[in-house]
Amino acid sequence: EHMEPTQSAQAKRTELQMARSMCWHCQSEAHGEYLCGRCVKVQPLSADLDYFRCLGLPRLLTIDAEALESKFYEMSRLFHPDFYQDKSETERAISLGNSAMLNTAYRTLKDPVRRAEYLVQLEAGSAKDIRTQPPADLFEQILELQDDLNAFRAASATRASPELADLRAKLNAERAALEVRRQDMESRLAELFGVWDRLQGGGHAAAADGEREKEDVLRDLREILSNRTYLRNIVDDLVDTMG
């Protein structure tokens, strides 16, 4: 059955990922190298490769930004599709796939929050499970804020100036309070980054205790990331509504 070029390239890349232990070209053993040691053909990055390993970094939350950028540009030069325009269809497919994965890995690890979300995904399940939810102690305050937002929208529509000014002042105060809370969350995230990295480095009393501590850190990370996203959405809604 005839396949379109794009479909053919995708199929080849899938086959290559399944046979990652050997070079797709000369069938010699491949042990994770980017280029085959025998025929020097570019090799596909494994579909099972996580972003930290892809960019040669330990699975930590505080990373060396210069090392990340240096490794990214080194690998970008190796995989860039421009260098494979006159190569075979298979090599072009590998180049495109590797470049796409590399770019996604770099964007994810460069941003501290995305990095934390990704690490939680790796260690404790899908990032989709990090649902946005309000901090429990702010639930009533957020309900009141949403009522104030609705009142502000209604007053804006009827141009009720005195009421509008009072509501704007109240919403500005509520926004400032939420920003303070979000800054507190950022500080707590930084603390958890340090705890996680210490646990990853070893030095704790017993492996079982260390694993329990890691589970606690991951749970706290998940909760703060969820709350942080919720507050960000609320603040963005405030800004959009008030102009």
Task: Walk me through the structure.
There is one protein chain. With 243 residues, the protein is mainly α. The chain has 2 domains: 5-110, Helix Hairpins (Orthogonal Bundle); 131-242, no CATH class. It has helices spanning 5-18, 51-54, 65-79, 89-110, 112-124, 139-158, 161-200, 207-242. The protein is elongated, with a radius of gyration of 25 Å. The model is unreliable at 1-6 and 13-19 (pLDDT under 50).
List its traits.
0% strand, mainly alpha, 67% helix, 2 domains, 8 helices, Helix Hairpins, 243 residues, disordered N terminus, single chain
Q: What is the number of domains?
A: 2
Structural class: mainly alpha
Helix content: 55-70%
Overall, the morphology is: elongated
How are the SSEs ordered, and which strands pair?
Layout: H1 5-18, H2 51-54, H3 65-79, H4 89-110, H5 112-124, H6 139-158, H7 161-200, H8 207-242
